Amino acid sequence: MRPPIAATEPSAEMSALPTLKTQGAVLRPLELRDAEALFAAHGDERTHHFWSGPAHTDVEQTRTYIADTIAMQGAHVWAITEDGGAALGRIALFVQREGVGEIGIIMTPQATGRGLASKALNVVVDYGFGPLDLHRIAADIDPDNNASISLFLRGGFQREGLLRGNWKTHLGVRDTVMMGKLRE
What we know:
This protein is an alpha+beta fold.
């Protein structure tokens, strides 16, 4: 059983999104100032391999991506940190329609293998099923992205199906493994 999440209200100058805390991880609202730290993920070809586009070429491209993501309708976007400081990754929960969300996550190379992605996934799922009152959370994963598939399986998601030719990316036309988790 994982420790319960603790949500704290943001300061007035920050987004209305709460900071989520769990043992060993703090998820705070993602900010434009996180672009420099997250360029380590978005600018890394290996990390960005299964993303919808090629690795970013500069920090400004990452900053624009962050701004566009934060501005999306229904987006709840956090920086993954150990203590509320430097962003080591990003996790987003996109509410697609009433009761249904989708999660996307990326970690910097230096933060992988430390359990932060699992902690972030668990606390965001709890937030989605709790305060957001979602009944379903999904993930759309490239079938060759074994690390992400394993992460979501460990988080209690089930493999639901394969959507053939679902994405046109820098790798060509790609399939999607759809994974989902229902509120108990």
